[in-house]
Amino acid sequence: MASKECADIAVIGLAVMGQNLILNMNDHGFVVCAFNRTIDKVEKFLANEAKGTMIVGATSLEDMVSKLKLPRKIMLLVKAGAAVDSFINKLMPLLSPGDIVIDGGNSEYRDSNRRMRALKEIGLLFVGSGVSGGEDGARYGPSLMPGGAPEAWAHIKTIFQSIAAKAEGEPCCDWVGEEGAGHFVKMVHNGIEYGDMQLICEAYHLMKTTLNMNPQEMSQVFEEWNKGELDSFLIEITRDILAFKDDEGKYLLNQIQDTAGQKGTGKWTAISALEFGIPVTLIGESVFARCLSALKEERVLASTELKGPTSSQYTGDKSEFIEHIRKALYASKIISYAQGFMLMREAAKEFKWHLNYGSIALMWRGGCIIRSRFLGNIKDAFVKNANLKNLLLDDFFMKEIQDCQDSWRKVVATAATLGVPTPAFSTALAFYDGYRSSILPANLIQAQRDYFGAHTYELLASPGTFHHTNWTGHGGNVSSSTYQA
Length: 485
Prior knowledge:
This protein is α/β, with parallel strands linked by helices. The chain has 19 helices and twelve strands.
C-alpha cells in the first residue's frame, strides 16, 4: 500500500497521451499518481500497462491530492475547453497556495491567459504547456513547451526536461514565457506543421501530375531529400507512406480519398495572424487548401466543366525539374518558419512575453512533428542575434533563399503554365517578393479609401500626418477619423 504524499506529480486523463506520459515519467524515476474521471479506467491501467511500476492510482480528486508531495503538481491531459475549466474549478478548493496546475492539452492560448490570472488570484500557479510528438513522442520523448507562472518552472523543470526528447544531448523543453505563451508557441508549431505538410503535398503532386512518377519513384526522391537540408520527420514519413503497399500489393496512398481534415489549430494560427496584422500567408493558404480539398463533389463537377491547359505534362529534363522542386520546397519552408516567428514576436510584444526564439527552435528540434535538421539553423540565427527582426535577414537564410530562388520561380511559373495548383509555393514566393520590396502599391489603396470614404492618407514627405483631398470637387473637405485597415 502506497504511503500518503508519495507522488511527485499527478496526471488527470488516461487516454493514450496521458497513459504514455505517465509511463514516460515512471521510466525516468518519478512517482506518478494517475486519475481519470471514470475510475475503472484507473484500475485497468494499474492492472495492465502500469503493472509492476511505481505508478499509483487515485479513487477521487481528494485522494489524488492527498498523495502528492508539496508543492503539489497536477497535469491535466483532458479535452481542451470546458473539461479543463471543470477540473480546475474542482481542484481549486482542494489545493494550497503555491500548488501547480498544468494544462497539457491543446488549449487555446487566450484560455491559458485567463486561467493563469484566475488561479494567481488565489495563490495557485498555472502552467499551459504545449505537448507535441503524438502517442510515440509522449511515451519516449515529446517536445514540451511550458509557459505560465514563472515561479512554477523551478518545480517542474526536472520532470519536464527528463521526459522530453533530446537533440544533440539537450532537452527539447525549456521555459517559453508568461501566461498563455506555451500554448501560443504550440499553436504556431501546429500552424507550421500545416504549412510543411501542404508544401510536401505540392511537391508530391507536381511529381505525380507533371512527371507521371509512380509512388515508388517518388519515395526514392524523398529518401534522397531526407539526406540533405530537408531532413525531417515529415519528409521521412512521406517516403514511407509513398512506398507502402496493402495486402494485395497495391500502393495504399493511391486508394486514399483526396480530402483532408483538420482539428482547428492551423485555423487558430491563421486567425491570430489576422488579429495581429502579421502576413502569415503560407499557413493561411495551407488551411484554405484543406478547405478546398473538402469540396470533393464540387471539384469533381468542376473538373468536367472548367477548362485548363491542354496538357499538364512537363517536357523538359525530369531530373532537373525534380531538383527545382526540392529547392522550391526548401525556400518555401524557410518562408513559413520566418512568418511563424514573426507572429510569435508580435504576440510577445502585445502580451509583454519574454520569448527566447533560439530556445523555441531547439524545443522543436526533436520529439515534435516538425522536427528537422533545419531548426538547428534557426537556433543558430537567434543565438547569433537575439534581436533578429526576421529569419530572412540572417546571413545563412539569405544565402539559402538566393541559391534556391531561380528554381523556386521556375516551379511556380511551370505549375501555373501547366494548370497544377501550388498555393503554398506561390504564396511563399509572393511574400518573399513583397517583403523585399521597398515600394508596394498600397499608396493607391490609401487614395482609394480617401476617395470613397474620406479616410485620409499620408504623404511620403510627411509620414504620420494625415491629409484628405476632395477628389471629385463635390465631396466636401471633412474627413472621417483615421483607422487601420
